[in-house]
Amino acid sequence: MQRRVATALTLVLLLAACRTSAPLPERRLFEFNSNFWLNMHHFLRVVARGYPVKADMTPTERAAWEKAVEVYRNDYAKRDLLFDEGMLAIKTALRSANGRASLEGVAIDPALRATMEEAAPIYRRYFWPEHDAANRSWIENATRLVGEHGARIAPRVAGAYGEPWPSEPVPVDLSVSAGASGAYTTHPPHSTIASMDDPQNRGLASLEIVFHEASHQWGRRLSKGIAEAAEQQGKQVPRGLWHAVLFYNAGEITRQVLAADGIDYVDYATRGDIYKDFCGSGCREKVEAAWDARLRGEATIEEALERLVASF
Ligand SMILES: [Zn+2]
User: Fold this and answer.
1) How many CB atoms lie within 10 A of CB 60?
2) Ligand 1 mean position to 249 CA, how many Å?
């Protein structure tokens, strides 16, 4: 009886998951931006961390630029883009300045505002044209790929987490630099993706990466499910295991959709050989064995994660 109830419940859940898997009607899934202020902020941070720059500045310009780099070196360079609340607040405030000539009325520390406005003409003259062109080229490629394949990827990626794809486009900012991982996503969902300093996320990979980053809004489902299964089974599992599943889900669904269109694609984490960083040797195979049942609609999230945890 218990089993029959569980089976019936499983069926209801699977039907719910399947119902969200039909291709989405024509609508924008992502809203891409190339924002001057956000780029200068990330660029000053990475230059302050030692990224080499070459520019033929006048002595006055060089002095002003170095002053801004020094401010970042002292106050912002070592702070985490994702976990430091102050850095999150700066990023959010700068998003509101997209397309504006100054930072007037933008909610950041007045000293930082003065530093950025002083450095702005120099950044605009020596760096921004190249950065903006790289962002726009990345966006153009990703927009084409999302237009061709995204409507079939989105409902499956979200459906695997038992969720519908968000009704509003997920905002994505391209940036010359986006931290050590080449991309990060904050809540409410907003992704920052590097257009220049991660060569691995270009071409077809940009399609996977926009869906991977958007999936972080459901990452808690994975970490919670894995923690509960580990507790039940009395196991210790690698801390990055949930992220391996997140990578696998977006990567494998992207691969399947592209394959159906006759395009060969190797997912980002396999190509970069980074699964082992998340959950050790054999990690990808374990995730694949457990999560493929979820992708086929034959397991609930909890069942798939229980199987995954049991394989450790
Ligand atoms: Zn990630």
Assistant:
1) 9
2) 11
Using DSSP's 3-state secondary structure scheme, residue 142 falls into helix
pLDDT at 16 over 50: no
Phi/psi at 176 (nearest 5 deg)? -55, -35
Question: Nearest 5 degrees, angle CA 188-CA 194-CA 200?
Answer: 120
H or E element, residue 30: strand 30-34
pTM of the prediction?
0.90
Q: How far is the CA of 213 from the centre of ligand 1 (A)?
A: 6
Task: Name the pLDDT band for 197 (thresholds 50, 70, 90).
Answer: confident
Residue 201, pLDDT above cutoff 90: no
Any bridge partners for residue 257, and if so which? Answer: none
At residue 101, what is the residue type?
A
Bridge partner list, 186: 190
What is the whole-number distance in angstroms between the Cα of residue 268 and the centre of ligand 1? 11
* Chain CA centroid to CA 3, Å: 39
Structure tokens at 255: 């691969």
* 59 CA from centroid of ligand 1 (Å): 41
Ligand 1 center to 244 CA (angstroms)? 8
H or E element: which one contains 149?
none
Taking CA 82 as the corner, what is the angle to CA 111 and CA 30, rounded to the nearest 5 degrees?
A: 105
**Cβ burial, residue 131 (10 Å; 0-12/13-18/19+):** buried
Rounded to the nearest angstrom, the distance between the alpha carbon of 11 and the centre of ligand 1 is 30
Cα-to-centroid distance, 212 and ligand 1 (Å): 6
| Residue 183 Cα to ligand 1 middle (Å) | 8
Angle at CA 236, nearest 5°, toward 233 and 242?
95
Residues 304 and 293 sit within 8 Å (Cβ to Cβ): yes
Q: What is the CA radius of gyration of the chain?
A: 22
Supply the pLDDT for residue 20: 47
Number of neighbours of residue 281 by Cβ within 10 angstroms: 9
